Amino acid sequence: EIVLGQPNFTTGTGTVPPTSSSLGLPESIFVDSGGRLWVSDTGNNRVLRFDNAASLLTNAAANGVLGQTGFTSGSNLPVSASTLSTPRGLFVDGTGTLWVADYLHHRVVRFDNAALKANGAAADGEQGQANMFSAVGGVTAQSSLWLPKGVFVDPTGRLWVTDSGNNRVLRFDNAALKADGSNADGELGQPDFVNNFLPNPPFDASLSSP
What we know:
The chain has strands at about 25-30, 35-40, 45-50, 65, 85-90, 100, 105-110, 125, 150-155, 160-165, 170, 185-190. By secondary structure, the chain is mainly beta. The strands form three sheets. Strands 1-2-3-4 form a four-stranded antiparallel beta sheet, with no helix packed on it. It has a four-stranded antiparallel beta sheet with strand order 5-6-7-8, with no helix packed on it.
């Protein structure tokens, strides 16, 4: 047994500034087909990559970082293709593309061939905002996201996003080929793309902050 993010099993302190072996409020993990462990280090506004996860030792250093220029920074500004703000759910699909729910930037970002990216590399695409430099929340539309929490890409290349602020799940077909800020192709939890009802009592087609 090992622990990552802390020097031992009895320590739970955060590290300021962060380091290559520290974690701050980690939210999600994913082990890809190459045995790499990906961690959404929410409190430090970054995603860490640990290679050869099964052979890691306690307090091992990460091999890569996305969302920050290096291992010792944790800012969520400015909004750009290379920054993250409170990343939550993440998923690596069969092509090696990393998808991240960039929670407070109200978007999902895509890193193609993520394991080969240099530290601090720019994302290759995004959905939920008009462009890489926008982070507008509180909008309910076919192309918008508001506080996305979870992401999943199915074997046919469809991206599914829990759009928690809009009380719905969105579906983007052939997501890796879509331009930035494209319209979703489907939704669940709402009657259409422009409403975000939170009904009380709930019914069989409604969602609440998924």
